[in-house]
Amino acid sequence: MENLLAGIMGLLVGLWNWTVHLNGGLQVVLVLAAVTMAGVCAIVAKRMRDPMMVETGGGVAGRTIIGIIAYVLGVAFALIALLGLAAVFAPLLGFIRP
Q1: Span 49-68, mean pLDDT?
Q2: H/E/C letters for each residue in 28-62?
Q3: Cα 24 from chain centroid?
Q4: Short-list 38, 45, 35, 37, CA closest to 69
Q5: Cα separation, 24 vs 97, whole angstroms
Q6: Cys-Cys with 67: which of 6, 19, 48, 56 at CB 3.0–4.6 Å?
Q7: pLDDT digits over 60-98, tens only?
Q8: Is the separation of the CB atoms in 45 and 70 below 8 Å?
Q9: What are the backbone angles phi and psi of residue 50, rounded to the nearest 5°?
Q10: What pTM value is reported for the model?
């Protein structure tokens, strides 16, 4: 479990360093793209949750799996958007040197 958490922390630190050292305009584009993708994932997850008129046996399982994947990706994109937004304002708040 510690190895998993250390790996996730390493990924987050790498993402933080990458977003902080991006150009300011690219940081804004990253945040907008991540927010858009999180919204798309939320729409897909909501659409997969609602039943269709004709359901087959395999259709329900496939829709459930797609809904779960869309939800997990939506959460990941939302976290990336929050990290990118923090990276936009980090130099202004004095957390890093520009």
Answers
A1: 74
A2: HHHHHHHHHHHHHHHHHHHHHHCCCCCCCHHHHHH
A3: 20
A4: 45
A5: 14
A6: 48
A7: 778 888 889 999 999 999 999 999 998 888 888 887 765
A8: yes
A9: -75, 135
A10: 0.79
